[in-house]
Amino acid sequence: MKKMGKVARLASLLVLTLLFGLFPIGSGNNLNKVQAVTPLNNPRTVADSSMNAKQKVTWDCVWFGAYPQSEVTSGDIYNKLKNATGWDENNDIVIDGNKYRRLKGEDAICATSDHSNHYNWREDYSTYHYFKYEPIKWRVLEVGNGRALLLADQVLDTQKYNKSFKIITWENSSIRSWLNGREAIVNQDGIDYTNINFINAAFNTEEQKSITTTKVINDNNRQYETDGGSYTLDKIFLLSESEAYSEKAEKYGFAKYSHTNDEARRTQCSTYAYAMGCFKSAVKNYTTNVRWWLRSLGTRCCAVEMLEYGDARNEGVSISSNDCGVRPALYLNLLSTNLYFYAGTICSDGTEGDNSGNSGENNQEDTNNGNNSGSNNNTGNNNSNNANNTGNNSNNTNNNKNNTTAYTKPSNKTTASKKPTKRALLPVEKMTGSLKSVKSPAKSTLAITWKKLRKVTGYQVQFCAKSNFKKGTIERKFKQKVTKTKVRPVKSKKKYYVRMRPYTKSGSKTYYGKWSKVKSVKIK
Question: Name one Pfam family in it (predicted).
Fold first, then answer.
C-alpha cells in the first residue's frame, strides 16, 4: 500500500508537470507554482452605507488568456526589443519566452502629447513603444450550468465602436468584428479582421475552444428605444444596458439604476489601452478611472458608455469616439478547460483578498515611464477597512462548486470591522433643492433652471419620462455657480419629470441634500 501511495503521488506530480507544459510561450502564462483547487462563486453583495451604491460587492477572479498591458521602458529587454527583427503583422514578437507588442502613436486610435487625460507621446508619433503580454484578469459575474460569465477586470484596449460615423447596430459594428475576428462582409465598413483582432491576440487555439459561443440579445435602448438590432452569436462581446444596470445586473454586483455612481462599475485601464487612446479621469477621487463601451446603442449614431464615476451616459457618445475603452466579456466553459487559474477576489471598494498577487509570470526589468496603467484597481473610494472575508461569506446562497486552480500562499489576517458611529449632519444634508422652472422652449428640448445655493460643491439634476424616476432616469451634475441647463434631444410630445438636489464632496465621499419638488413639462 505504501508503494502504491508513492506511485500515486508521483503520478500526480507528473500530471501537474504536463499541465504546466500545456501553456505555449506566447500565452504569457509561464506558471511555475503549486496549485490548489478553489471553487468559483457568484458575486457577494452586502449593504454598506459608506458606498455611493449603498452596497459593497466582492467578485471571484480568474486569470485567462493574455494581452499587452504594461510598458517596457528600460533594461536589457528594452534594448533587445529596440533591435529586434521578425515582428509579425500584429507587431508582436516573442523574446526570451515572453511575448511583446510594439506600438507607435501613428497607429494608436487617439494620440496626443498635450492633454492631461491621455497618454503622453511627447510629440514623437513615429517611434515604437513596447508592451508586454500579461495574463488577463477577469471578474466572475455569474457561475452556473458549467460555465462562467467573465468581465475583464480593467479596460484592455481602445477602439472606436464603429470606424465610420453611420447608422449601425452591434451586429454590423466594426468593434464586434474586431473582438471576434470576423470577415469584411460582417461589418458595414467592410474591414477584414480575420488576422488582426482581439480574440486571436488574447487566446490561443485551446483557450478559444473553451469560450462558449453565446446568443447575444440586443435590446432597444432603455431610455430612447433606439433599435438594438438582431441577436448575434459571439464568443466575445460587450455588456449591454440590462447587464450593467437593471434588476438582472444586480445579480452581477451592479447597481440597478444607470444614474447611480456605482463603485462596482468603475474601472481603470492597462498602460497599453492608455497608449491606444483611452481617456483617463483627472478628477479628484476618480483619478485614473476610465470610460468604457457598452454594446447597447444610444441616440442616433451613438453607443452607451460607462463613465468614470460609475454611472452611464444613456444617450451615448458618438460611435466614432476615439478614447472610449474596451472591456470585453465572455462565457467560459468550466467543464472542458484547465486553462484558467484562480486570481483571488476583488471588492468594489478597491481592495483585493485571497490573492497570491502573482499571475505566474517571470519577473523582468519592465519599468513604467510615468504613463501609469493604474492597474491596482483603485475605484476612487479609499475605504481601507475592508472587513469582508469574501472567501468565507456565510450569506452567500449560490456557491457553485466549479473548480479552478489557485496559487498557494500564507493566509492573510483580516481586520475586524468597527461599529459605525453616528455623525453630525453636514450643512448640505439639511438643505433642500429648489427648481425655478422646467420648460420646453423648442422641439425636443428641455430647459431646467434652479436656485443657486451657497456652501455646496454643486447640484445633481435628474430627469425622467416616469414620475417615480425608477427607469430610464438621466442624471447630470453641475458646479455650484451653474444654475441652468438645456438638454437635447429628448423625446418630442413626451412628458418629462425633473428634480434636483445639492451635494458636497468631502474627501472621497459625496453628501447630498434633499430632493426638490418634482416639476414636469411636455416636450414640444
Answer: DUF6273
